[in-house]
């Protein structure tokens, strides 16, 4: 036992004596060798590194000799257990630190054999004391050295100018500072600046203006300066600015906005000398000061209460530069304090000056003919109000404010509650103790990381120091512990984890401080929405908010992706180093050493090797045993508890404190935001008001449906109904003959090993998918349970095409059937005379039956099934379960319950319904194409023409494909013969629906293959890999369906032989055609069954689907080709495709050639591709393939927004899932009318000709490129707009099944 204790103590001594920075053996990048040690200093010289290595070896030798003496002593006499235990307990392993070189390693060794046991114990005590003294001395020296290096290296404030003349002036002014105030120097500098600029402005880079597009290093520099100012490290920002300015190559990265940002920081502090330094650098760089530069200088003068002469000269120079004094107060964003100091300075020179009043809300109104009615003043308009009183809404506002100020929210998990056994309680206690240790370790690691990054910043490099200071250490530690808690058992990609952590810091970096002012304004805003208040004049929420004089929220520059990932990677490494646990948790009999909780390993995913952070299995088991029932979400990832702020600009709206962008895009991308900001504000009113209207819809949870779902979820799930099964139901590794360990046996053939590997991979894939689905359902159901009995709101924003989405990712109405069934309107409406009929029609629509029947037939069918409907509502889990057979079972069940309540009400017309009824477009993409081309044939197929019965384009395409199949079958095409009876609407629907959105033949083939495998007669095996009954591999020609031998010859292996290699499968069609006709009797294969042709059949069917669409929608295909060719030529000119939607939203496609970004060091080097770098050339393939579907998406979003705004004007509740519109049952008829009218108005505009004119003006009007061959071809293409047919759009207004 003493040996065991000594072993632990020796290990502790080893850790204590090991120096802080000795480099070990160089491991491969990302290997575990250096993952868990402290962060090494990269500044040690080679000599110092060798010296540290020698010290480490010497200390290790001393420990080994002590171990030898201990064993010798034990051979003579046994040390009393209690005595040794006491001394070894005292000899705890201190924190790892450095050590002095041992000078007397053998001191005290003589005479040890006289009295072995007592002398050994004394030696142990003396060694411990000596080690402690050495450690303390070394730590003191290292601390002094670090402090000395940190403070001796002063931050540089004086600029190092490249112009000798300016450098001489600066030196002269510095020497003459007592006689020449800095204010006068600044005035002289401003006077001389224009003369220098007049000769150098032409040579200045074009991207040096304040509107320059910051890419790469420029964007990173700007975010660095911004974070320095936010965290109070202005001298550091100035130091980095000076460092970059002093080097000509780095100076090119600096823009006027960066100089202005640092100047503004010094102005706020009243530091005029440092501000003048920045002006010197500004002049040295050849940049002209703008309004923001002058505002900083004058504000600083105001704070210092300087004389009027200097201020007067500054104002005179500003006027000579062509800048207006009033612009300082109207064009420069200033706080109230900054505005007051600026005004004080100006009034010293101009006592009678009166600043212009704050700009009144712009009277500009959107002039689009599509929105003329929306913004026409009409006192009779009655906008809808909420059902809540002003007091209730104010209370909800306070709740939401607390949530956002806390940045996170914790909810109870809906997982099954475990029994509180001793094992569970012990696991929870252990976890609590570990988390306490981890907090301490994380604090220490964060401080050390900050010190290291601060040192790099003081050397003038762009380090992560200011980013690490954005959040308090308490917030960072809490965030990292939450990340550790949520890490899945199979681990997570380090790149993904770094990206998520970096984004979380960015989102939390700045909460607005104007809480009191926000509270006052929001209370006034609620008068427009509350049920018990009135406003003077009815108006839209945005108009009312702007009338309150709300200041515009400051626009936040996005961080470049490299910064986000690098910051997240640094935090992930901090977590890896700090999170350790006793090894006894993994192996009860192991010594009580500390082992990492997280391991960095490599794994192959999609043929790529990636680094993964994986939790220790013992930690995962501890979490499972503890079964803690809490989940933590970001405040922006959950629905809001009060109405969102109205959208008033591209970066202001939705959440109360958390910044949100109107147009979502990949982090680091600015092109969309720049387009929106350059767009006249009035042009965006339609989109802003539509997003506000969608977000103002109040929701509540359908409690009865939630209870039924939770009952299944806490049991074993029900995948057939969309309730994922728990991990316990996931497939286990094979056993018996298929067990993985059999791969090690010599008698197992390579073919059997390959089969075992495939089976194991398949089961692991299924298990991962089940776990992912389970986690998604857990989040959704936990949030639903948390929000039960509450009213909540879903703020919206949009993607770059204009399509709208809720900001809450886990719980919204855009999810699956189950997600939609959990939601209903918080505000109810009486059914009225026709509401019950619409509920019945909606129920039949959800079943998927009667799709080609009239509305009356669907109502009659619902009446016939009323007994099943009521049985489903009353006994959903024990009755006849009719609802389970529907296409959308959970929504059908919710509708059954609503119908049952309505028909049992004393007066169904007075029954208040909260249930949303849907009206879905009939293949909406094809509807837009048919309307664009005025295609009468296509219009009839997608219900643009009135008809007694609905036309089903999917059934028509399936019928046309069946005609082609029958013809091929008669000609002996075997795959056509096998497909007899299997071509249905369901098989072709997804492909037909997505063809207009740019799906390729490859993607269409995968869709059809998936549908075929869902058919019972097509088993879940790959047809091309399926052995025939004799055990041979069969293959077929995808073009003809003929059964042929594979190109590598007819294998003669038995059942279980490995399938053909993956590399060969891609060459089947060509190789198979070569061996056609070479089959002899010896190679004859038996007649294949249908499952042998899944792969071939999907190839055959996707070709026939495309051929059918070509025949049925000829106008559609011509428009698609025109859009594709236009995009291809635009891309060849070096530009990304841009256009403006009919509602005025500017669109640009973010498809550029990938630029590789590498972040070196740490656990591993991370490399990722970025396709949003606008400095890269456009990706021609993505630009041309993406333009047709993206353009159609922008049209369907315009139609949805028009419908939303007009429904809001009529007092309706309206939400949408793209081309599926929702409202109360009583209002379906009104919504249908609005929907048709706005579709006709939208397509009455010359959309294609407007697009042609815009593209010509945008890409063909520059005289510098007019002679380019690509521009010439583009001009010819854009002028040849596809001709339209004769379809009359007015007929859409009378089409019953246009949306139904």
Note down, in words, how this protein is organized:
39% of the residues are buried. The strands form 11 sheets. Strands 2-6-5 form a 3-stranded antiparallel sheet. A 3-stranded antiparallel sheet has the order 11-10-14. α1 runs parallel beside α3, α20 (494-508) crosses α23 and α46 (1247-1259) runs antiparallel to α47 (1269-1279). It contains 47 helices and 25 strands. By secondary structure, the protein is mainly α.
State the gist of this model.
Its EC number is 2.7.7.6. By secondary structure, the chain is mainly α. Helices cover 51% and strands 7% of the residues.
Shape: globular
Q: Which percent band covers the strand fraction?
A: 5-15%
End-to-end distance: 81 Å
Strand order of the largest sheet: 2-6-5
Radius of gyration: 36 Å
What does the main sheet amount to? 3 strands, antiparallel
Query: What do the pLDDT scores average to?
Result: 78
Number of strands: 25
> How many helices in DSSP terms?
47
Instruction: Give start-end ranges of low-pLDDT stretches.
Output: 1-53, 74-117, 148-152, 194-214, 1019-1091
The structural class is mainly alpha
Helix content estimate: 40-55%
Q: List the quaternary state of the chains.
A: single chain
InterPro entries: DNA-dir_Rpol_C_phage-type, DNA-dir_Rpol_phage-type, DNA/RNA_pol_sf, PPR_rpt, RNA_POL_N_sf, RPOL_N, TPR-like_helical_dom_sf
PPR repeats: 255-289
Protein name: DNA-directed RNA polymerase
Region (Disordered): 13-51, 92-141
